[in-house]
Amino acid sequence: MNAKMTVERREHERFETRDGAFILLGPDSTKLGRLIDISMGGLAFSHVARTRPPDELFELDLFLVEGDFYLDKVPYEIISDFKTYDNHFGSITMRRCGVQFGSLTQSQISELEYFIQNHTTGEVQV
Question: Alpha-carbon torsion 123, 78, 105, 31, what sign?
Fold first, then answer.
């Protein structure tokens, strides 16, 4: 195996999301993130890093700016969180965070399937 080859370890296919998809997370839904990609097992989002997202298992809300989709109280756990951009002329640091969903209700699974079918642009290319 070539040392530069990446082995995809994810169980679920990831899909790129359209513009206008965001998440709110934390115990009080105080952190806003822009959705990057999503799967039935989790999602990735970018955010301005004022503080690190909480490590504990909490809930997030997924919504579209247009207002025709809102999925709330999705349990999650942070899997990765790393810096992606520094603004050298100011104090802005961007981070990318990956989360894994906790136990979803049947209703949440159905809503997530609907979101992936109707609000994504295609599979993420590894």
Answer: negative
Q: How far is CA 29 from CA 1, 59, 81, in A?
A: 44, 8, 18
The Cα 38–Cα 95 span in angstroms is 17
Run means of pLDDT, 10 residues per run, the chain, 126 residues? 49 88 79 93 88 67 90 92 73 87 96 94 75
What's the pTM?
0.81
C-alpha distances in Å from residue 107, one per residue of 63, 72, 101, 103: 16, 11, 14, 12
- CB proximity list for 46: less than 8 A, separation 6 or greater: 33, 34, 36, 84, 94, 95, 96, 97
CA angle 28–16–97, rounded 5-degree value = 40
User: First vs last Cα of the chain: how many Å apart?
Assistant: 16
Q: What domains, with CATH codes, occur in the chain? A: 21-120 (2.40.10.220)
